[in-house]
What does this fold into?
Amino acid sequence: MEREIIQTLDGSTTIHIKDWNESYHSKHGAIQEAQHVFIKNGLSLFENKNIAILEIGFGTGLNAFVTYIESKRLKQKIDYTGVEAYPISSQELEAMNYIDELKVNHFSGIFNKMHVSDWESTSEMDVDFVLTKRKQLFQEINDRGKYDLIYFDAFGYRVQPELWSTEIFQKMFAALKDNGVLVTYAARGVVKRSMIEVGFSVEKLAGPPGKREMLRATKGFV
It folds into this structure.
């Protein structure tokens, strides 16, 4: 499928798949979406804690990079696993402008290291942040009770409804520790119902710019 680099409304770049009219991040703002959905409503719940994170859709590495940056402010130690079936190309990576937009040139080496590190291996970004990248279909995930937090950032229900199925959310529920949390930009009723069906307690929250709502699901009662 043909892909192109586009600039989102907050100035940050993302990848757009023309055949699907679907982007890796919100057209209203890639960085804004990452910070609102995954940091404000996910990572920030675990301030001053050591946690394990699973990202469903490593993609451009934006969520992992913003997590690294914010973990310093939140005084966290992170064990981060990113799952991606189809890694982006080096040319696409070079077109991402996150370092400039976030004004974190001092972390440029970390962003590069996240992408050049080998798949199917664990790499130490620094003493407080370990990254494991797995080239894997989401249907193949079989982790059990391993993660405190899941970033569910798959392509939208409109183009890949199978990634938002009860079967997938059963895998997510199993992968979380008790009282673990899953956050996603999605807010469709069918997605919420699938989450509840497998045992999640689900709450709707205000969405990022351009989106009215998002979902946060907890393995346990909220």
Notes: The CA atoms of residues 12 and 100 lie 9 Å apart. The longest helix spans residues 62-73. DSSP finds seven helices and eleven strands in the chain. Helices lie at 30-40, 62-73, 90-94, 98-102, 108-116, 166-175, 189-198.
